[in-house]
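Sample intake sheet
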Amino acid sequence: MRSPLQGGLPPADSVVAGAVVEIACDESGFSGTNLLDPSSPVMAHASLDLHVGEAVELIATLRSEFRFSPREFKFGQFLRSPAASEAMQCFLAALHGRAHVHLVDKEYFLVTRVVDLLLAEPSYAAGTRLTEEQRPAALGLYRARHSAGREWSIFLAAFVELFRIKRRRWPDPLALDRFFQARDALLRDRLGSQAEDVLTGLSRARVRAVLTRLFADDPAIPPPLEPMLPALAETVLFWSGNEGRRVLVIHDEQSALTAGRLKGLQRALARHGETRGSRSPTCWPEWPGGWRASAAAHSSRSSPRLHCLRASWRTSRSARRPAAVRPRHAWPRCP
C-alpha cells in the first residue's frame, strides 16, 4: 500500500485576484543532507506553465510519432531511441518559452549556508536573489577553494556534520570542535582576504546561538541543509516576473516541503513584496494556495506535466548549466 503523501499546504479558500500563473514543478538530484556526494553534485528544480491538456498532447505526440512507452515517460527512452535527436528537438521546441530549470551546485549551496546562517540573520529568503548582499562573501570563500587542498572538503564535511540535527536532542560539542579545527586549517592555507574575512568572522558564540535556536525549533530559521526551499523560491520569483504575478505551485510529492517550511517561505516572499511594491522585478506579493495538497497526488507516473518536467531537468543536469527561458504564450506543436 502506498504511504500517505508527504509535504504540502491545503488550497486557499479565498478567490485569487490579479494575474496568476500556475506551474508544475519537480526536482532531480535531491539527496537530503548528503550534499557532498561526488556522484550527485548538482540538483535541478524544473518548472513549466503548460496546461494539462497541452502536456497530454505533447506526451501523446511523442508516443505516437516516436513509439515511446504508453506508461511512465522516461528520459532514457530519448537516448536509446533511434529517433532520439528528432524527438528531443520536438520536445524542446514545444517547451520553448514555457519552461525554467534552476540548477543548484550543492557545494556552493553549503558555502552560502555558512554565510547566511553564521554571519547574517538566518531567514527563509537566504540563498535566493532576495539576499544578494550576502553573495560576495560566499563567492569569495567559494572561489578560494582551489587554493585550499583537502582542507576544503574537510571544512565542508565538518559544517554538514555540525548542522545535521535530525535525531539529535542537543548540539554535539565534538562536532563544534571539529568545525573550528577545520576552519583554522583553512586559515593556514592563506586563501586571500575575502575568504579569510569570512572564516575569521565565524565565532563559537555565534555558532552556538544558531544551533540553540535550531534545536529549539525557531520557525524563523530555515532547515540548514535543505536546498529545495531556496530552489523553490527562485522558481516562484522567476515566474512572478516583472508583473508581480501570483504563482500557484503544483509539485511532485517531496517530503522536504513540509507545511511549516512552506509557510516560512510564504512569509519571507510576502515581506519582500511588501517592501519592494508590486512593480518590483522580484516582487511576489502573496502566495495564495501556493501549494495544493491535492496536486501532490500527481505522481510522475500519472501526471503528463511531470513527465515533461522529468525530461527537461534531465537535459539541464546533463548540460551542467542553467536552462531558463522567459515565459511566452506561443506553443509550437510537434510535426
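Comment: Residues 1-7, 10-15, 278-300, 316-335 have pLDDT under 50 and may be disordered. The longest strand covers residues 20-28.
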